[in-house]
Design goal:
By secondary structure, the protein is an all-alpha fold. The protein contains 4 helices and no strands. It is globular. The longest helix is centred in the middle third of the chain and has 28 residues, at 54-81.
């Protein structure tokens, strides 16, 4: 089950990367909305430290998963247009994949119980 979830995360990462690189023409306007959502997610996660409601944590995890999938799309689109350095690109894509794997494993663990 663990490896299936990792494979699912990698496939989702590749699919959104292909969408961002080949299908979406320009996703530059998406960046400001993603950043605002990221800040709201950080604040909600901090609030989640004090709220022990499983539904609240599932919603945070699902929003995080969608956010980092969209960040993957956004970063591949930026890579297509050459808008950042290879080092920055590698770091961003690594963080996206790491967060996608973390979120899928977290959801699998929560729905297992």
């Amino acid at each position: 089950v663990f490896y299936k979830n990792i494979l699912l995360a990698i496939i989702a990462f590749i699919v959104f990367g292909i969408l961002g690189y080949f299908v979406i023409h320009d996703a530059s306007s998406l960046g400001k909305y993603l950043f605002v959502t990221l800040i709201a997610l950080i604040i909600a996660s901090l609030v989640g430290l004090f709220i022990h409601n499983s539904i609240f944590h599932i919603v945070i995890t699902m929003v995080s998963l969608v956010l980092f999938l969209l960040y993957t799309l956004f970063d591949f689109n930026r890579m297509k247009h050459g808008r950042f350095t290879p080092r920055e690109m590698g770091f961003n894509l690594f963080l996206n994949l790491l967060n996608i794997i973390k979120d899928i494993l977290n959801l699998a663990n929560r729905f297992k119980n």
